[in-house]
Known about the structure:
The complex is a heterodimer of chains A (165) and B (415). Chain A is an all-alpha fold. Chain A is 72% helix and 0% strand. Chain A has two domains: 1-84, no CATH class; 89-165, no CATH class. Chain A contains seven helices and no strands. The mean pLDDT of chain A is 82. Chain B is 67% helix and 2% strand. The model of chain B has no long low-confidence stretch (mean pLDDT 84). The interface between A and B is medium-sized, with 20 and 21 residues.
Amino acid sequence: xxxxxxxxxxxxxxxxxxxxxxxxxxxxxxxxxxxxxxxxxxxxxxxxxxxxxxxxxxxxxxxxxxxxxxxxxxxxxxxxxxxxxxxxxxxxxxxxxxxxxxxxxxxxxxxxxxxxxxxxxxxxxxxxxxxxxxxxxxxxxxxxxxxxxxxxxxxxxxxxxxxxx
Amino acid sequence: xxxxxxxxxxxxxxxxxxxxxxxxxxxxxxxxxxxxxxxxxxxxxxxxxxxxxxxxxxxxxxxxxxxxxxxxxxxxxxxxxxxxxxxxxxxxxxxxxxxxxxxxxxxxxxxxxxxxxxxxxxxxxxxxxxxxxxxxxxxxxxxxxxxxxxxxxxxxxxxxxxxxxxxxxxxxxxxxxxxxxxxxxxxxxxxxxxxxxxxxxxxxxxxxxxxxxxxxxxxxxxxxxxxxxxxxxxxxxxxxxxxxxxxxxxxxxxxxxxxxxxxxxxxxxxxxxxxxxxxxxxxxxxxxxxxxxxxxxxxxxxxxxxxxxxxxxxxxxxxxxxxxxxxxxxxxxxxxxxxxxxxxxxxxxxxxxxxxxxxxxxxxxxxxxxxxxxxxxxxxxxxxxxxxxxxxxxxxxxxxxxxxxxxxxxxxxxx
Lengths: 165, 415
């Protein structure tokens, strides 16, 4: 509760703080730890990383585990304000893919930018056409398809060898 | 000096075509003999409809196999084209049928109904359910069968052309392209879910199994016609695709799948090839959908949900991608087994502490088998045919050294 006009529920603030905390944690993990270094090395060139004594299979397993774990945390956050069913994930699967693609694969800041853009855009379109949330999603997806035309690798694109290609 | 090898006939180069057409013809013959309409009345009409629908799904799987298994474009949008084809034919079926009903109900009046009255009656009948009584612009052609049939080809074709042009031109490949096609499917589905999309929102189009002008013909006969039409379409498409993928065109497609950049450097217009394959297979899916939905009887936007396109990919993967018969086997096997499991006729397994009800557990089984096939048998069911051929052809050990069939292989080179 802020004033008579605007009200923000405490839960949503808590989710916001939670998201920020995990964003900071992941940036620290990827930039400042041995694990982050190895993950980035395996992403860029698994064969070269392996010859430097990193076990790519182990890193892949750890990354997959960490990724699944963070998705679980997001599920907790969503569960605080949305309905929880066994099909909860399917509502968000396309949006979460879109976020990464728009933001740029392999960049945490890019993902943040993508999420901000997609979330903001959806609310703006809903604001312009409040009666129809389905249409808002349709227009947003169309916009993203067009956006990919101009920045096929996302807002923050990896360059050089890291881009893989 | 040996004489240059004469090109072998088409059937000798593609033995699967002969086998496939033979099996399909045998299936048609058996079904006709056992059908209620023409034969011994030993299989039910609903089973013939299931078989006909399965053949349409096989047709869609063939298209998916060419676009994914041969060209390496994992499109998660082909079921959307399938459903669009169904919507296009459904518009005519529903319009013409409703017009008949309206004419019948107005026939009792003292003076013949005017065209406006008929149009209004049709509009209220069709769109009353979404709270509207005007015919939307996208129904402008619904009165004419030839125009709607043209739309079955044109609508999926043009959407695929525009989308593919945008996507391939900016070199969106791999998982990005899959996500983009999935987003397109989701956008289409969300759009059609709206009531003001003009296609009756989430009610969809229904009553498609009643063919206009054929009220006197029983469903027994209609279902048999559609079964045979589906079989003919599947057979023709199989021959066409086998021909297209076995020649030089097919070689270029496989080359694009294996190393796109190298094909580009060799001077082939990769984008053109990909766009052509994407669009052509989208049209095939549209045609398959136009045959499927009159047998299913109802179509709604849920049919466009991204999960349907994922199922299509699962069928092709389980059957074995990169071989046409693999796609057909996968689609037929999985969808028939699926309708068997979800039909509630499979005995539940009682474990004492828990009863496995297959209607609920079938999806788990399907997901598990997809994971197992991907992990342990990447060639899918079609790989069994390789095993069988391995019995007849000696195992030459090692990977081939050259790209062509029959190239010298590793171990032979050592000896």
